[in-house]
Every structure is written in structure tokens, then in C-alpha cells.
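Hey, sorry to bother you again with one of my protein questions. I've been staring at a protein lately and its backbone has me curious. I owe you a coffee for this, so here goes:
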Amino acid sequence: MRRDSSSPFLLGVNYPWLNYGEDFGLCGTHHHGVSLPANQKQLARDFAAMRDCGISVVRWFLFADGRAGFLSEKGIPARPDALLLKDVAAALQLAGDAGLKLCFALVDYLWLQKKPKTAFHHPHAHVLHSAAGRESFLERVLVPLFQEFRGHPALYAWDIVNEPEWAIREFRPISSVHPNSFAKMRLSDFRPFAHKIVQAVHEFAAVPVTLGSARLSWLRAWSEIDLDILQAHYYPSVGIRREPALVRQLHALLDLDKPLWLGELPAQFPSSKSYSLEDALTVCRDAGLSGAAIWRWTTPGPEGSDLKIGTVNPDALQSWLNTNNASGPSI
């Protein structure tokens, strides 16, 4: 997984949304997407600030839990809605103007999970729970998306799914796989679907494809679906299920034959006294990773599970770049 000595370490950030699941396309009859003038102004400011502190890649959730962006007929995806492509085009234009590249995480694990009947369900909630729904989503929504933005200069990669393991039975501890668990999908159903998306990206998109694994220790589960960039997320573990330190986990992956990108790295982690973002970035760079993306740029909501992690400190990033004789690279 060693980065070529001539290749820059790509400093990234997770945006990850303005409005969860509603940044691209229509949500029912409502539109809160990127192409709205007010959102474009905010994005232009944010992207300029990112570039000024050395960021090169922005990771952004696209369909998230599937509530927006496409039309369906009898629960089966039919086509992109009237504003999906316009919103994606606006985001790519703004990123390109700022000298950034976008990594779009197509699907969030929340869309793959099966929630209780008593929970809130939007009209597309169950689309990915059936083989027919998954196939139609790929052929009728994703392929047109890939074709529309084939080889776009502001695209870093298409990211198939954000942390799919949280929706797959085989990755959940045995004690948590019970009738009330949300992780009902089987690996034997999901992995072929992920592989088909990889093949579609290779055929129709002409940009790299990746998948955001929730843990470095689960990364090898995706080594056989022909990803161009291997990706995992790292958050310090505490308590009973403590995992090895970041440097040890990366050392165990030295034999990987593809570039490794850390798609999520916390801005801070108060429950771990030993964690430092600057130290973690140095570990990633020294281990030969292609880059790392910090969680997150936008401010978490008051009830967000990541509230204590906070947001990126631009001054800290610039300090790290200066200390390491680095700069925001052009990619």
C-alpha cells in the first residue's frame, strides 16, 4: 500500500452534508439541494476555506439513506429525478473552481439497515432490501449518474457505501444479532451488489472507485471486488473492545496491493487522552497511505452522535502542513 515517493499525501475532509440525504435532488416535493443560490454561496465560502488550509479532497454523502434524488414506481427505482444531476453538477463546478476534488459516498449504511415497522420510513426506505430494488437502482439511477459525469476533472472517486458493515449480519457481534438488530443484510447478498457497482464505475465513469469500510480490521473483506482505492475509517477504540493503536493496525496492512486512503479520521476524540489529530496524520503519512480525510467540516447537529468529535480546526491543519514541510497539493 506504499505511496509512491513522488505522490503527495492527500489531505481530505468529510463535508459530509448540508442537509442529510437532501443535498442532491428532490425530497418528495421539496428541494434543498446544492444548486440553490444560498447553498452555492455557502459552499463557495467553505470550499475556499478548505483549500486555504491545505485540503485537496472532500468526501460528501450523496444519496445517504435514499430519501431523495430519484423516482420510483411501485417501490422500484425508475430514474434520476429532475434535479439530481443539476445538484451534482453544481457541487462539482464549485469544487473545481476551488481546486478541490470530490469523493461522493453514494449510499450510507442506514439505508441498508432494516428498521422496525414502528420507525419512520420514507418512500424509498426499502429499495435496497431486495435484489430487484438493488439491480434497478444500479441500472436506472447510478449508471446514468456515472455516464453524466464520466471522467469529470473534479471527481476523486465514487465511494460505493459508507460503512456497510453496520448493516451486515456477519460483521456484528453474535450477541447483537437478534430479532431487533438492524443488521439484517447478508454479506452474500451485499458483496455481489458492491462488485456490480465497481464494474459499472469501471465501464461508465472513468474515475476510481472505493468503499468506506468502518474499520481497518475489516478492510480485507472487500479485497476481492476490484476496488481501485482501499478505504477504511479510524476512530480510537475505548473500553472492552479496544483495538490496537493506529500505527499497529496500519503495519498489519503493509501487504495490501492497492492504495489505502483513510476516509474518516476524527478531528478530536475526548474519550481517548492519547489521541491527537496531528499525530494520527503523521502516522498515516509515514505508513505510506495515499491520504486521510478528517471528520468533519460542517458542525454536527445538537443530537448528533459525533457532537463531541467537533469539527476541523483549519489552523491546526495548516500548522501540521507547515511542520511537515507539506502543502495542499494539486491533484
Observations:
- The chain has one domain: 10-323.
